[in-house]
Description:
The protein is an alpha/beta fold. It has two domains: 26-191, Rossmann fold; 192-265, Helicase, Ruva Protein, domain 3 (Orthogonal Bundle). Helix content is 49%, strand content 10%. The chain has 13 helices and seven strands. The protein has helices at 26-40, 56-69, 84-94, 104-120, 137-146, 166-171, 177-181, 194-207, 218-228, 232-248, 256-265, 287-293, 296-313, and strands at residues 45-50, 74-77, 126-129, 150-151, 154-155, 158-163, 183-189. The strands form two sheets. It has a five-stranded parallel β-sheet, sandwiched between helices. A two-stranded antiparallel ribbon has the order 4-5. Helix 3 (84-94) runs parallel beside helix 4 (104-120) and helix 9 (218-228) packs across helix 10. The structure holds adenosine-5'-triphosphate and magnesium ion. Residues 15-17, 21-23, 28, 50, 52-58, 164, 232-233, 236 line the site of adenosine-5'-triphosphate.
Amino acid sequence: xxxxxxxxxxxxxxxxxxxxxxxLTRRAHDALACLFYSLSRRRGFVLLSGEVGTGKxxxxxxxxxxxxxxxxxxxxxVNPRLDPIEFLELTxxxxxxxxxxxxxxxxxxxxxxxxxxxQAAGRTVxxxxxxxxxxxxxxxxxxxxxxxLENSAGKLLQIVLSGQPEIEDKLNLPQMRQVKxxxxxxxxxxxxxxxxxxxxxxxxxxxxxANGQGVFxxxxxxxxxxxxxxxxxxxxxxxxxxxxxxxxxxxxxISVELVEEVAQDFQFDAPTAPSPSAPxxxxxxxxxxxxxxxxxxxxxxxxxxxxLVEQAHNP
Length: 315
Ligand SMILES: Nc1ncnc2c1ncn2[C@@H]1O[C@H](COP(=O)(O)OP(=O)(O)OP(=O)(O)O)[C@@H](O)[C@H]1O
Ligand SMILES: [Mg+2]
């Protein structure tokens, strides 16, 4: 209803994780580059973590899109609250090799043969598990066993676990140390800083057709960052409701007072400071990856290079 009033073609702040509205902050870009790097080097097990609503599923969708563009077989399990047998059944069916089987042994055998065939054909195979913090410890252990499927050329199955910070607590349990030791890369998403929030709002408005005229005043954007604490899902919620109220009140650009009204309606706390800038992901990575990621030109070239490597593997 407000679209024409603000010169938009679509709703800019839907809360579905739609890759068309992707805004890659430096950190999200680095996380994606690292995930891609580890998968294409067949390193085995990688972890993506972040607070509720920081963009994990959005990033995974983006990764999935890139992998599928390159015809890399992927299984995407979004609800891993399953027992090990159900999980295996779902994974096989995601890979398109499901079907009647006589128990776990037979399913594992089928998966192993299929992975060996893929590797003989030079293919990388990826299993992505979202909401991994909801997995039982039994299932985590079972997934670790899947990373044992390997031959001299490396791991047959690349696994991405993604979840809220509770996944880190689970992995820190003494009985989970075998799983933890196999994780070759851990990328963490953080809330957005003020500058990143500005970029995020600008990108989404532009993708929705905004012509560059201010929809939100600069003070309103600062308030959105403060109330949302830089969490993308909350930024969307505040922006969407501010657009609805702004349209009703015929206000353009949307003012800080209007954002405050929306924040009060949703009973957001009123923090005084903008959300802090997150340190770059590179500071948590091995030196070799740090050097690549600290240079924006190099890291873009690096992503392109990985694409070429993949294409060379899979002409
Ligand atoms: N990088 C991004 N670019 C554009 N939109 C984003 C981005 N990150 C998050 N969002 C928006 O924020 C919403 C929440 O993101 P998402 O569902 O990916 O978070 P999450 O970390 O998976 O949350 P949860 O922990 O609840 O599963 C998304 O629906 C999307 O609209
Ligand atoms: Mg999610």
